[in-house]
Amino acid sequence: MQALEFSYSTSSASIVVASSAMGQDPYTLQIYNGDGIIIEQLEVSARSRMVQESAKEIPKTVIFKSPLFDEIRELHGLAYRQALNVDQMLDTIVQELEQGE
After folding, report:
1. What's the CA gap between 19 and 87, in Å, rounded?
2. pLDDT tens for residues 7-17?
3. CA–CA separation, 76 vs 50, rounded Å?
4. Higher pLDDT pick, 34 / 22
5. How far is 101 from 53, CA to CA, in rounded Å?
6. Total number of domains in the chain
7. How far apart are the first and last CA of the chain?
8. Taking a C-beta distance cutoff of 8 angstroms, is the pair 87, 72 a contact?
9. Predicted pLDDT at 1
């Protein structure tokens, strides 16, 4: 599957947020300066693992997240919704459905 990548630029910097495929981790965040040089890069992911703290305890699945995982995932989701105009499309669909009643 193809990665999803979104970018935003200002006069002095650019930010790129990407996921491996269809919004799945790992997520990457890159910040570029005005000359197009990467000044910060971060990759975050979440992995699950079976954990059993004692022989008597039933093993359970625990998810281990990279620092900032939730924030980068949310940023990616917001960029996706804005780039594809998801909210406006949903509003249009609801209006059309209401008019058809």
Report:
1. 20
2. 888 889 999 99
3. 28
4. 34
5. 57
6. 1
7. 39
8. no
9. 56
Residue 30 C-beta-side C-alpha neighbours within 13 Å: 11
Average per-residue pLDDT in the chain?
Answer: 84
Q: Position 99: which residue type?
A: Q
In three-state form (DSSP H/G/I as H, E/B as E, the rest C), the secondary structure along the chain is CCCEEEEEECCCEEEEEEEEECCEEEEEEEEEECCCCEEEEEEECEEEEEECCCCCCCCEEEEEECCCHHHHHHHHHHHHHHHCCHHHHHHHHHHHHHHCC
Task: Quote the pTM value.
Answer: 0.63
- Residue whose structure tokens are 């990665």: 3
Which tens digit of pLDDT belongs to each residue from 39-80?
A: 989 888 888 777 777 777 787 877 888 888 888 888 888 888
Q: Sign of the C-alpha dihedral, residues 73, 79, 84, 89? A: positive
Beta bridge partners of 6: 17
